[in-house]
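Hi R.,

Here are the chain sequences for the assembly we discussed:
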Amino acid sequence: MPGAPRVIVVLSGNELLDGRTRDTNGAFVTDDLSRRGAKVTELITVADDAERLDAVLRHALDAAPDLLVIGGGLGTTHDDLTASCLADVLGVPLAENAQALGFLEERLRVLAHRRHLDFDEVLAMARRQALLPAGSSPVPPAGVAPGIAARAGGTRIFALPGVPFEFEAMWATIAAELEHDDFFPDVAVRMLRMYGVGEMQVAPLFDELPCDLLDLGIKVGGGEVTVRLRYRREEAAERQADAVVAALEAGAPVFSRDGRTIDEIIAGELRGSGSTLAVAESCTGGLLGARITSLPGSSEYFVGGVLSYANEVKADLLDVPREMLAQYGAVSEAVAAAMAEGARDALRSDYALAGTGVAGPDGGTPEKPVGLVYVACASAAGTAVHRGTFPGDRETVRTYSSPAARHLLLRTLSP
Amino acid sequence: MPGAPRVIVVLSGNELLDGRTRDTNGAFVTDDLSRRGAKVTELITVADDAERLDAVLRHALDAAPDLLVIGGGLGTTHDDLTASCLADVLGVPLAENAQALGFLEERLRVLAHRRHLDFDEVLAMARRQALLPAGSSPVPPAGVAPGIAARAGGTRIFALPGVPFEFEAMWATIAAELEHDDFFPDVAVRMLRMYGVGEMQVAPLFDELPCDLLDLGIKVGGGEVTVRLRYRREEAAERQADAVVAALEAGAPVFSRDGRTIDEIIAGELRGSGSTLAVAESCTGGLLGARITSLPGSSEYFVGGVLSYANEVKADLLDVPREMLAQYGAVSEAVAAAMAEGARDALRSDYALAGTGVAGPDGGTPEKPVGLVYVACASAAGTAVHRGTFPGDRETVRTYSSPAARHLLLRTLSP
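And here is the predicted structure of the full complex:
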């Protein structure tokens, strides 16, 4: 997408690099920036090491992005290096900023009072948080530490504390100001989802089309391919987007044209017809139910299910005939269908989904290898069974089985 | 920890920067490297843009790390730039590698057969994946795309596909080779897990102890606190570690002294006594079963369960008395106990876990607010019920309920 402001995000903190903490600020801010039509070109997480942080900030400014967002390293310990490294790369000294000191005193007075601490002692410990690169200004704190707003050439720089609630709240203030300054373009987003094809079959569909005004993203996961188009809201770009959408609709099994997920579409269909759904899970062990119930309000249509891990449970609770289990084995078309029908009967639902497969790592045979999965959907109209073979490890096989079942349901609900 | 090898990780992919996909490879590999005693100084995620990827790879090699791991950008589309950018910064041309082509042909033959595609056409589309920087060698693929192994001065470079199961499997092979080459220091790792306390109660326990030879990490999640100690295997460090472990054992509810997860401990107990387990899930909708069955071999002790989302299902399949549901409501101590007992009867298991709660966002009342959860564990010795209130959104409430139930089971199994 031409003209999108370019952004680099730098996060500092050892805890983000040694397996202790999963980053949330980077995911949050890149997502938000992207929604607003900015293009994040790099997200860099760097250890609390002055030399490395210096090198990273220089690398970032060398790229002359329109915006540089820095998270973390604004606390009171020797590991908190952001202000001094930023001063370094800007070629200015650190200086105590009167406005920053004002923010700090105000927040520390409250904190000292609440925790019964001596204000002067607390201020002495925290006072270095009022040291800013000369010429920069403070961002009002959401917690205690003020942020830093600076410029380098055409790059706006904002440094914020790494504590997620502070980072998110202070970013919201900054983003609102940037919106006010028309920093972000007016962007349209369209999202199409398809199931049953791979990236290799989808990508060629728009290879021949003009896309220079579009920011085109393809994502693959759980058997689905998601194509996202972002573009400036203007006629020429709209036309390119329309052509790409038409090509996809014509050449790929698109099931969502408005960005809704398979779960949201299923929820809409079931709600619309006032129908109910049950599940019978073997190899997925609850993943399917967990996914369906992750949507708020799912109790309107989801009645429940049976986790029939053991064959006894398939027979006892789902009425799968023991002879069928003995003859065909638990991983078979017949048993998948019987599980779905059994769940529909036992839970008195309109629709029932079932899945049975070999998740591995053990239990595979030449005839029934690890990755073989049968999913079934029972309804008043009959029972459909789909056979899939999924590559990969136990978690992947289980993870792929759940969308296979949900897509079979969607095909049953709206053929 | 002194002397640790220094590592930079570079991930490429627009989808990681525009809010479409949450990175898992970076978290996985930094965690694994850190367990092995390496120090990750930077984790850089970069857009699919040749200029930026070039700049990032140059920046990374400028730091002369011992290891550079690259994830993503090895596919078949024009966005897949890793091989060519790596060749650029290494100052060598791209060349078709015979061994890589061999891997590719082998994998594509299977793929073409499975998807009923023409092998030659598929190979023509994918053949660029055999182009490697001259002088480098392929890493055997876990999916289709081979990885790249190269060197620049003292830096070992490995580039792997970004698909998580491929990335993880291929990294495991590389890590094993690096271990074999004594790339990683001889590091001892001790991990203690506790349940029912917060970080603020745990951290002070070792604040006064000497820890300068230890790399100490605290991780919090799902109600558990995990403390990880890493140190070079030498006497002085062992002594510090022993003191920290003793302080934790004395002052916190440690349930795992050897790093085993709650699921692994439960599996061990159930296997050891030849007992079986069933579940009855309401608000968790399958999360509990999914978690228990994520362990390979769980079919030895897990028989299955009932997802009793609707009250009808609680009554029909778990024999929860309708009067009890009417009198106390589905989220109550009585119903939690009846669900567990009902599951134990219906599934004929030795133990049964149940959970019922208000996951939200709707459905809360002043008496039964969002976040209120009852978990129960039924066994031959009787039924225990635990009442919990968890803060946060629907996903958090559901996620916290599952460990609450599993810890109640552990207390029942080994009081």
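The longest strand of chain A covers residues 187-195. The two ends of chain A are 36 Å apart (CA to CA).

Let me know if anything looks off.

Best,
T.
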